[in-house]
Amino acid sequence: MKVAPLTDNPARLRGGARLLAGDETLTVAATREAGRHLLVRFTGLADRTAVEHLRGVTLEVHESDLPALPEGEYYRHQLIGLTVVDPEGRTLGTLEQVLETGANDVYVVRTPDDGELLLPATAEVVLRVDVTAGRIDVSPPEWA
Is the dihedral of CA 5, 9, 13, 14 positive or negative? Predict the structure, then answer.
């Protein structure tokens, strides 16, 4: 199967790796480079017809197989859905998306009135992330 890797760590697609394809768990049998893509063979899927149902599906690493991150760093999927709260304790909304920009990431927050708030993911704005509590404390810039 021809795969366009979106990871910064292509070693995650090495032989033996477990990947999620929707609700299906696949095991990588072998991988080889083919230009900007990878050719991946999965255990139990012997030919092109057997992988046809995977066309357009995003392959993901099992959360349990992700390496631990240093203190204060988070995977995006851990942040999506967290409640965003200002210093006065008011709920600003729910983190809906993380945009990559050249300087810093930008948090897209869906507000209670179905609006959108864009917050730079900088140390000055993001004061604390508590994944366990489901909360991100922020100090929004005055223009936000």
Answer: positive
Q: How many domains does the chain have?
A: 2
Closest to 121 measured CA to CA, from 88, 73, 81, 69: 73
Instruction: Give the CATH number of the domain where residue 89 resides.
Output: 2.30.30.240
For 12, the 3-state DSSP assignment is: helix
Q: With 90 as the cut, is the pLDDT of residue 139 above it? A: yes
CA distance 11 to 78: 22
- What tens digit of pLDDT does each residue of 47-57 get? 889 999 999 99
Could you tell me how many helices (H) and strands (E) the chain has, helices first? 2, 11
- Rounded to whole angstroms, how far apart are CA atoms 118 and 125? 11
Measured distance CA(91)–CA(28) in Å, rounded: 43
d(CA 62, CA 49): 25
Q: What is the pLDDT of residues 96-111, one digit of tens each?
A: 999 988 889 999 999 9
User: 7 lies in which domain range?
Assistant: 2-65
